[in-house]
Structure formats: C-alpha cells, structure tokens
Amino acid sequence: MDFASLVKVLRSGQTAEFPEDADSLEFARSLDAQDKLGHLRDQFILPTKGSLKKTALDGSIPGGGANLDAAHKAAADHDPSSPAIYLVGNSLGAQPKLVRSYLAAHLETWASIGVGGHFTDLDNSPLANWQDLAAACAAKSAPLVGASPDEVVMMNTLTANLHFMMASFYRPTARRHKIMLEWKPFPSDWYAIQSQVAWHGRDPDASMVELQPPDPSAPEYVPTAAVLAAIDAHADETALLLLPGIQYYSGQLFDMQAITAHAHARGIPAVGWDLAHAAGNVPLRLHEWDVDFAVWCTYKYLNAGPGTIAGAFVHARHGGVGAEGPGRFRPRLAGWYGGDKASRFEMARTFRPTPGAAGFQLSNPSGADLAGLAAALDVFAMTTVEDLRSKALVLTAYAEALLDGLLRAGAGRAADGTAAFRLITPRNPLERGAQLSVRLREGRLLERVGAALKKEGVVCDTRKPDVLRVAPVPMYCTFEDVCRFVHLFGAALTAGD
C-alpha cells in the first residue's frame, strides 16, 4: 500500500495494513522516499549519539539535522556523529535552525538601537519591532489553532495563562460552582484548578468533578459518550468544563467539537481546553467549534524552545470592548500591556483593553522568547497542518504495527505468559495525535528498557512507574527512526532473558 492510500485509510478511522516485511529498514526507507515533508527535517538541529553524552559546553553544534542520505544511510549504528532517534517532541521539540539567526537578530537590535527596538523595524530583520512582535506571532499561530489573529495572544506560560483564563471564565455561583476535568490531569492543571476553586472559598472535593474511564478493562480511556453522559449528569451545577485536547499520559485525542457543542447545549457557561499536547500536533478549529478559551505551550510540538512564551485563545464574542461604563468588556485580571495600544503609553488610570485576546495581556512579553517562537512558526509556514496530520497518522500507525509485531513474537514475555507491554493510546487513529503511550509490565522493566534505549541514542519519555511515551513528530522524524526504535525496543525487552 502506498503512502497516499495509507493516509486515506487512516483518515477514515480504519486500521492500516502493512506487509510482512514492514519491520525492515528497506520498507521504512520506501515510506520515507514517498514522504513529501521529508525536507523539513533539514530545518532542525537534532542531537547526535555523541552530543547526548556532552558534559560541558565546547562551542560545537550537532549535525543531526542532516538529510536522510547524509544521516541514516551513511551513519553506522554506533557512530557518535549519527543522529539520535529523537521521539520526545511531546516533551520538548527539536531546535529549528532558524532560531539561532532570529535570536542573533534580536540581540543585534538590542545592542544597536536599544530601547528603539520597541518601535523600529530594521531592514533585513526577520522580526517585527518588539511592541508588535507578540501580535505578529499571534497572527502566525492563528492558523494552527483555527482562529482569527485577534483571537490569539502570546503571553506568559501555560499554567499562568490557565489561571488568567479561569479568573475571567470561572464565575461560580451558589448553584453553578463545579469544574469538570479529566481523570488524570497533568499535575499543574490539577493545582491550578484546585487553587482556583479554593480561592473562591469553595471545597475542591465538592466542586471538582473528574471524568473517570467507565471500563475497567480500558482504565486509561474515556470515550466521547462517557464525557457527554457526565456533562448531562452535572451540567446544572457546572460553571466550567476544562479538558485537554490530548491527554498527556495516554495520548487520547478528545472530540473537542462534539464535547464543546454538547456542553454549551446543556447550558454550561464556559468551555476551555488545555492544548499543550494538541497545538502543532493535530488540526484545530477553535473559533468554528465555539470554544470559549484555550491555552497551550509552545515548547512541545511548536518547537519554540524550553519554557518559552505560551499562547491563549479567547473567542471573538468574549473579546469585545464597548462604550464607557460598567460591563463594557469581559472581567479579567488586567495589566498595562493589555491596554489599547493607541493609549498604552498615556499611563491613564482607566483601563481600556485592546479588543480581542490581546486585551488579556498583562506585561511586556520577552523579546527573546518571541524571537525563538517566530523562528519556529516560520518553519510551520513551510507546510500545512493537514499535511503534518497526514504524515503523523501514518507514522503512528507504522509504529503501532511494528509494536504489535513484537507482541505477536512474544518479545520480553514473562514466564507466566504475561506480555511485556500494551498500548494504552487509543487504537482508533482519529483518537490520537503523534504520541503512543506504552505501558510496560509491572516491575523494573521500564527502568531497564529506558536505560538500554538511552545507551543506543534513543530519546523518549518515561513516566514512572511503567509508561514509555513515544512521539514520532512528523516535522523531523522519519519512518526509519520508527523502525530503528522498535528494533532497539524489542532488543531491550529481550535482553537478559
């Protein structure tokens, strides 16, 4: 089956069939040869097996971003200059090559014209002046989340933005005070929600409703029907529905459109989404889906750099600014940088926000952060979200098929017949992004396998006690990366048997 046929099957929600020789490097390379996004790998600096062992800075930059001919086909398995297998874009994306030149432009601007960089666009610079740079990045981000530029703002970090959005959208009353959330949220989300509830004088145990997986045989999966049923059960007491676009632990992609529509139909005042694992990973249509607000980071699938500036979406209907007087704009925690740009530097005591999401800003955003983000977003401009999604569907299906092959072969099976692992990410390709989560057998198997993979230059993510998260990101990962990973994973499972 050719690449286009695989995409068609997977986009219909069906399981793709791969030939018997699918686990060969030759087959993987045949898929890479059909990949029209393969050139994007050249836009990134990927770690090498040697650079991963670096213990001190030496001024060198790894050359792991080389194209397939120069990298995979010419590099020996144990050559320290050969590229690492980087499958951890769900935690930190690889570095775009443009970042270095964009940061250099930022630093040259600062050194050359100082404070004038806030207002002056320099010829040959890839960056807007600092006062306009956040808006420029918001405009570039808008297509990735399905929004208009005015509905997107780049500011703060993810959890801070979550707090600021809840300050505006979580308006508990005596009757409506509950927040509905996922069964196993990322801890920072849990802390944010719990503290917001307590801040309003409520008991978190009474006001936080967790959506639990209904089937004990699939303890990591919450089907859409279960979410809708929970909404029906709690709608009259719910002030906010706040869920992840993609669940960080299991990799499940939620049906944001159906869930948002159902919550609104049942009268829930606000629906928000944490898109940390969705932005840059899967197509989003936030405006069309009538989402009230959303937040995301930019250091995972968006590749903007560790801990860098985050993004937020506020639907256009919540961003209006009316005439003077009470109720002229949505309540929020305000700061001077959210003030109307035309009067921002007048230092008035009356706050009049910039219309749209930009009116939720508080402080001057980091120019260095925005320079890195601008570089990363310019790489996204070289392709489309739909093309990235197509490749991601095939990459994850290919990884799934090869992992299933290990299970059929009994790799790492215990003496009592217990399998070495199972996939906890949904099998339906339409219910996942670029991440597959592998739950290993109880015991110290994760520790052993993780150490073996690290030794071989495989970079992936472990979640103790027993989950390995693997994310073949379509921008810079290849089918050969996936094939080599599964070979090494299988060897690690059987080592010592």
From TrEMBL:
Binding site for pyridoxal 5'-phosphate: L158, T159, F186, P187, S188, D189, D274, H277, Y299, W336, N364
Domain of life per record: Eukaryota
Entry protein name: Kynureninase
Quaternary organization: Homodimer.
Swiss-Prot/TrEMBL cofactor(s): pyridoxal 5'-phosphate
Catalytic activity field: L-kynurenine + H2O = anthranilate + L-alanine + H(+); 3-hydroxy-L-kynurenine + H2O = 3-hydroxyanthranilate + L-alanine + H(+)
Enzyme class (EC, first level): hydrolase
NCBIfam families given in the database record: kynureninase (TIGR01814)
Molecular function GO labels: kynureninase activity; pyridoxal phosphate binding
Record's keyword annotation contains Protein transport: no
Subcellular location: Cytoplasm
SUPFAM superfamilies: PLP-dependent transferases (SSF53383)
Family: Belongs to the kynureninase family.
Keywords: Cytoplasm, Hydrolase, Pyridine nucleotide biosynthesis, Pyridoxal phosphate
EC number: 3.7.1.3
Keyword Plastid in annotation: no
Biological-process GO terms, alphabetical: 'de novo' NAD+ biosynthetic process from L-tryptophan; anthranilate metabolic process; L-kynurenine catabolic process; L-tryptophan catabolic process to kynurenine; quinolinate biosynthetic process
